[in-house]
Amino acid sequence: MSPRAAQWAGGLAALVAGLVVCLLVYRHPEGLNAPAWVAYAAGSAFVLAGLAMLAAALDATQLQGVLGLAVVVCLLAIAAWVVFGPGERACPMSFTLLHADIGDALCRGAFGLGALLVVLFLALLGRRMLRAQAKR
């Protein structure tokens, strides 16, 4: 399979997967352990990632960058809900033979560290974009 065909196939697969997730959230919101918007953000991340792959297949570099940034924002929103949202958190953790739920503080801390890294990434990306804009 050529790289461009792989981009088309992967992009369409991610797009469809995200749409299916969003449809399932819409049809069965009672099965969620989080607010619906969190699940929609997860589905949207797949949709946007699929669109970014399709943009890459079409050599739409700027659109691909914007869509990639939107994926990161969706993932940041999910992590921020885990960290700051109401209620108790229990994150499942597993190694080869060890399975356990880590406690609320450790779960929020791990997601908080991840969210902080994403914010740092976004700040560096914004700085890079501003520098590139100033050079034009």
List keywords for this structure.
mainly alpha, globular
Describe this structure in words.
By secondary structure, the chain is mainly α. It has one domain (3-135). Helix content is 76%, strand content 6%. The protein contains four helices and two strands. The protein has a two-stranded antiparallel sheet. Helix 1 (3-27) runs antiparallel to helix 2 (36-57). The model has no long low-confidence stretch (mean pLDDT 91).
Give the strand content.
5-15%
Q: Give a short account of the largest sheet.
A: 2 strands, antiparallel
* Helix proportion range: over 70%
* Main sheet strand line-up: 1-2
Number of strands: 2
Structural classification: mainly alpha
How many domains make up the coordinates?
A: 1
Distance between the termini: 38 Å
Structural shape: globular
